[in-house]
Amino acid sequence: GSPVHLLVSADQGLMVSFRGALALKERLDLPAPVAKPCDACEKPCLTACPARALTGNGYDVPACHSHLDSEAGTPCMTGGCLVRRACPVSERYARLPEQSAYHMSRFHGAG
């Protein structure tokens, strides 16, 4: 299949995700793109994943789920994805560990 890539928000870092898509018949005029937060970043997200599920080529969802099934995946399940937490932009976005644990349970429960 096609590689999965992560969306990095200029305001929320990796603390935003969309689990759906819209198909429209008409073409929409989009606003001008803003500076990408990753361009000047050292990209700690690429080395934060203990399962090495995130690389410059995309995100290996099955590897992530396998890790989450293991005891070593407990910190990700209870405190949130280590990749998302490593993002400097994400650090500025206030999310409680309980919120991250909820979102991880929804993500992993759907896998």
Secondary-structure topology with pairs:
Blueprint (H helix, E strand, L loop, with lengths): L44 H4 L5 E2 L2 E2 L1 H9 L4 H6 L2 H5 L1 H4 L5 H13 L2
Net shape: globular
Mean pLDDT: 83
Report the end-to-end length measured between terminal Cα atoms: 16 Å
Count of helical regions: 6
Q: Regarding quaternary structure, how should these chains be classified?
A: single chain
Order of helices and strands: HEEHHHHH
User: What is the tally of beta strands?
Assistant: 2
Portion of residues within helices = 25-40%
Largest sheet: 2 strands, antiparallel
Radius of gyration: 15 Å
Taken as a percent bin, the fraction of beta residues is: under 5%
What do these coordinates show?
This protein has a two-stranded antiparallel sheet with strand order 1-2. The model has no long low-confidence stretch (mean pLDDT 83). The chain is mainly α and 111 residues long. The longest helix has 13 residues, at 97-109. Helices cover 37% and strands 4% of the residues.
